[in-house]
Known about the structure:
A: 14 helices; B: Four Helix Bundle (Hemerythrin (Met), subunit A)
Amino acid sequence: MQESASLWVGLGRAIKQAVLAATGAPWVAELVHTLAGVVGILSIILLSALVLVYLERKVCAWMQMRLGPNRLGPYGIFQTIADIIKLMTKEDIQPAQVSPVMWGLAPVLLFMAAMTTYAVIPFDAGVIFADLNIGIFFFVAVGSQATLPMLMAGWASNNKYAMVGGMRTVAQMISYEIPLVFSLLGVVMITGSMKMSDIVKAQEGLWFIVTQPIAFVVYLIASVAETNRTPFDLVEAESELVAGPFTEYSGMRWAYFFLAEYAFMVGASCIAATLFLGGWNGPFLPGWIWFFIKVAAMIFLFMWFRWTFPRIRVDQLMSFGWKVLLPLSIVNVVVTGIGLWLFFPLV
Amino acid sequence: MENGGLMHTLAFFLLSGITLAAAMGVVFKRNLVHSAFLLSVTFLGVAGLYMTLQAEFMAAVQALVYSGAVAVLVVIGVMLTHRQQMSRSNPPNKMLLVGALAALSVVGAIVWAILATPWKVGKGSVVTAGDIGRRFLTDFAPPFEAVALLLLAALIGAVVLFKGGKAQS
Amino acid sequence: MLEQYGAIAILAGVAFIFPFIPLIASAMIHIRRPTHEKLLAYECGIDTIGRSWVQFKSSYFLYALAFVLFDVETAFLYPWAVVFRSMNAPAFLAMFVFMAILLLGLWYAWKKGALEWK
C-alpha cells in the first residue's frame, strides 16, 4: 500500500530470510518469525504500560492544575522506572488465609488473556500477528476470558473486600460485555467479514465512526466498563473496598493486575481505532504512525474520562448497562441491518 | 510447515490431555469452587480441540459462551450455595461402584456410537462463520427460531424463579 | 489456517510463562519478613469476624443467566451479520424474528423488575 508501510513487514521478512539462510530449515524460520511477533507484542504491552503509568499521572495532574511527577529526571520521566524497582523489591506477602494456587495464578491468567487478544490487532498493513477469518470475534472471545481470573482473585484471597470486589467485577463485566459485543456487530454487518484486514480496507474511503456513531459511543462506554476504569471502577473503589480483588496482593503480583489493565485498555483502544477510526488508513504518514496517533487519541479519551466523571453507583451501573446501552446497541443493529439491506444489498 | 501432521497430532494429544486432566480435577477436587474453575479449563480444552478440527468459529463460540459465560454462571452458582466448610464442599461418597458402572456404560454407549457411525472423510473445505450463518437462515431456519424460543423460555424461567422467591420471603 | 492458531498457541504460551520471570526475579531480591499480623487478612486493622466465603445474593445469578442467554445470541448474530447482505428477504426476516423473540424476553425481565439492582 504505502511505501513505508513495508517497514515492519520488511523487518519480519528480513528476519525470516536471515534465519532461513542460516539454518536452511523453513520451519525454523517460520518459528523465529512467529517468536519475533510474540516479542513485538510483548514489547508493545510493556512499553505502553511504562509510558502510560507516567502519562496517567501527568494527564491527571494537568487536569487538576498540578505538576505531577517531576522529581526523577527531566519532567519526572524516570518515575515509572523507580516504580518498577520499588515493586520488584517489595515484600511479596502471601496472607495465611488465601487459597495459594488460585491466588497465585489469577494475575498471571489475567495477563495471559490480555496479551492473547493482541494477536488480532492490525498495527499496519500486513503487520498483524494472525489475520484470522474470525478476527474481531476472536478478540471478543479471548477478551471474555478476563472475567474468571478477576473472580478467582476475589475468591482465592479469602478476604471480604476482595470477595465483594470480585462479585462486583463479574456483575459489571458481564453486564457490559453484551453491549460491547453487539456494538461491534454493526461494523461486521457493513464489512461482511470479521477479518481485521477486511474491516480496515473497507474504511479506506469513510471511517465507520461516521456511519456507526451510536455503535462507537456504546463501544467506548462499554470498553471503559470492561477495563474497570473510572467512572466504572466500582470493582476497586478505594474509598469503600480498599482495592477490591487486589486487596491481598502486593509487589509484582499486584503489578500484574495493573499491567493487565493497561494492556486491556490499549487493546480496547486499538480495536476502537481499527473498527471505527479507519485503522492504519491515513494520508502522507506511514500506516503504523497513523495507527499510533489514533490509539494515542483513544487512550487520552480514556484518561480524560477517568479524571472527569465521578464514580457511579452499583444500581446505576447495572441499569445503565441493561436498560440504556443494551437496547441502544440492539437498535443500532436493527437500523444498520434495515438500512444496509434496503440500500446496499449484495444480491 | 513440513511436519504439520506431527504438530497436529501433538496438539490433539496435548489438548485432550489438558481437557481430561481438568475434567478429572472437576470430579475429584474436594473444593467445589476449584472444581468450578477447572470446568472452565475443560471448556477451553474443548475449544482447542475444535480448533484442531479447523472449526475456528465453533472454537471461539465455545470459549465465549462456555468458558466466558457458562463457567462464570457455574462459579457464581457454587458461591451462592451456603457451605459450612468450603474445603470439603465436594466430598467423595460411597457410590464409587455405581458411579464407575454408570461411567462405563456411558463410555460404552459413546464407543458403540463411534463404531456404528459410517464416517466419511470431508472434502477438506473449511466451514466459515458465513457458511454457518447461511445454513441457519435457509435450511435450518425453523430450528434457529426454536432456539430463540428456548432462550426466551430460559430467560422467563429465570425471572420467575428469581421474582417468585422474592415474593414469598 | 492451523498455522495461525499454532502461532496463537505460542503467543498464549509465552503470555503464560512470561509473568513468572519477573515474579521469580522479584522473589530473589525482595525482602521476606513475615509476621503473624502481616499474614492476616487485610481488614483496616480489625480482625476478620466470621468467614469471607459467604453466601451472595441471588441477583448476581440472575444477571449471569441473562448474560449467558445474550451471549448465546451473539453466537448466532455474528454468522448472520457476515452473510445477511447476500441473502434473500425471508432469510433477512428470520433474523429479525429471532431478535424480536429475544427482545421480548428482555422486555419481560425489565417489566418484572428483574433488571433492578436491589
